[in-house]
Write a structure and sequence with these properties.
Elements lengths: L1 E7 L12 H15 L7 E7 L5 H14 L5 E12 L5 E3 L9 H4 L1 E2 H10 L3 E9 L3 E2 L2 E4 L6 H7 L7 E4 L7 E4 L4 E2 H13 L14
Parallel strand pairs: 1-2, 1-3, 3-6, 6-9
Antiparallel strand pairs: 3-4, 4-5, 7-8, 8-10, 10-11
Helix pairs in contact: 1-6
Length: about 210
Amino acid sequence: SLYVLAVGISDYPDSLKLNYAAKDAQAFADTCERHSARLYKKVEVKLITDQNATRRNVLGGLTWLRKQMTQNDVGIVFFAGHGGKDADGSLFLFPVDVDPEDLLSTGVPGDQLKKTLAGIPGRFVLLLDACHSGGIDGDKRRAGGALTDDLVRDLGTDEVGVIVMCSSTGREFSLESPAVEHGFFTLALVEGLAGKAQKSAEGAVYLHHL
């Protein structure tokens, strides 16, 4: 079976607001439901967006995966929203009710995400568009700095074995744009899974194609 947890948050308070993160999560969830049915016995999607994407509900989504998954299943966690590091350099994903000044008690810790995914049977793909806001020619910037580098390295080890795809790493930025009304990362994923990516002889889109 395929289990998809898709989280997208546009409706952050004040200056944290994004334009298309919630729409990105919806589009990714719809794409999985539409194009994966032929490959799996069952496809289940849990979509959490905007005001529903509280810290409690995001962590509850991870608990849902833990309860559902077996060693024969595939899990996908998709996150579009903000992320940041605290004073100690620890990574946190920002739920809608985050307090950026108190990430320890209001953010979703990257360490907890790592431990949870490492402890769940089956195979996992993490699709991460954790970002900070900032205008550039009408676009919104997502990600930046070395925000995702540590998470990618740690999850990709042999002991954990999670496949991670990020919109950007290192000093890169990723963008969401009014021209396409999506983040470019999600747009590429959705278009690729819908058939624009190179396909295998049997018509499947594998990760290296995507």
